[in-house]
Write a structure and sequence with these properties.
globular
Length: 307
């Protein structure tokens, strides 16, 4: 009978363990919380996030469009347009799956800049007379976006997106970057204008006089397969000048490209104004940071007067 209190206490302890679910009264898996959390959490692979995979597909489509650009305007325009439209899809995927990353934002911007620049390079070769204008547009686009992103990362701090523009700094840029409808419309119509110019280089004799029929020889014709176009020219290198002229001989209707160019031209002009504003604002922001840094360093130092 002297051992009955010990027996009762053991039974009470066992009942307590049974009620809690595990021995010693600890819940399952909570004996060592740090160990369990370290074994269950796996490092994320940022490069395999859904928005970034969409970004890689944009690059593949853009490269394919560049390959077809000198010879097949319809195929090139289709691939290029799909690549541009996917620009909106990756943002939707990033918000839906909560996978917004700095890498994805930079990848998206770099892809946009490179694809537009490549198309403008082709337009420069199609119309050498306007090459300086297209080169200026390439330079403005690259410079304004680079300086804007650099200023955002430098002045606003790590983790700040280049699309988060303070309204006090620029109401125009704030509207452009924060309103998704405005951003999509401006970017889409800007690209549509350059695609229309690309199609007009194959279809409009007004802009491309080389499309007009030539009377150099009685039996000459600008159509492929004529005596002036031997069969060997069909195997011309895709990037050669002769291949470009051969592809232009394929007649295309210029009505739709002219309509696209007319509708999108005001938005394209507005986009270039935005690029100028973005460049100026970013330059001023960086200059403000330089002034603040120089003051903290005690610069400019006051020169001692010589007696």
């Amino acid at each position: 009978m002297n051992g009955s209190p010990n027996v009762r206490s053991r039974k009470q302890a066992a009942a307590g363990e049974k009620q809690n679910g595990t021995p010693n009264g600890h819940p399952t898996g909570s004996a060592n919380p740090k160990r369990s959390s370290s074994t269950t959490e796996l490092p994320e692979n940022i490069f395999l996030f859904y928005p970034n995979i969409i970004g890689y597909s944009r690059i593949i489509l853009a490269i394919a469009s560049l390959y077809y650009m000198p010879l097949h305007p319809r195929t090139c325009s289709l691939l290029y347009s799909i690549s541009c439209l996917l620009d909106a899809l990756d943002g939707i995927a990033a918000r839906y799956f909560e996978q917004s990353t700095q890498f994805g934002a930079v990848l998206d911007m770099v892809t946009d800049r490179c694809t537009t620049a490549c198309l403008l390079v082709f337009l420069s070769s199609a119309w050498p007379r306007w090459a300086l204008l297209f080169q200026g547009l390439i330079s403005l686009d690259l410079a304004s976006h680079y300086m804007h992103m650099y200023a955002t990362l430098t002045m606003a701090g790590r983790g700040m997106s280049h699309k988060k523009v303070d309204e006090n700094r620029s109401k125009l840029l704030h509207l452009y970057y924060t309103n998704k409808n405005v951003l999509f419309t401006v970017c889409a119509l800007n690209e549509l204008f350059f695609i229309a110019l690309y199609l007009l280089s194959f279809s409009s004799p007004i802009l491309s006089p080389s499309l007009l029929p030539s009377d150099k020889s009685p039996g000459s014709s600008s159509q492929p397969g004529s005596p002036s176009h031997p069969a060997s020219t069909f195997f011309a290198a895709p990037g050669s000048a002769w291949a470009m002229e051969l592809a232009r001989a394929n007649k295309m209707d210029s009505t739709l490209p002219w309509i696209f160019a007319a509708v999108s031209s005001p938005v394209m002009a507005a986009k270039q104004i935005l690029n100028v504003v973005q460049l100026v604002k970013a330059s001023n922001w960086l200059a403000e940071g330089d002034i603040k840094a120089r003051r903290e360093q005690g610069l400019p130092r006051k020169k001692k007067k010589k007696n």
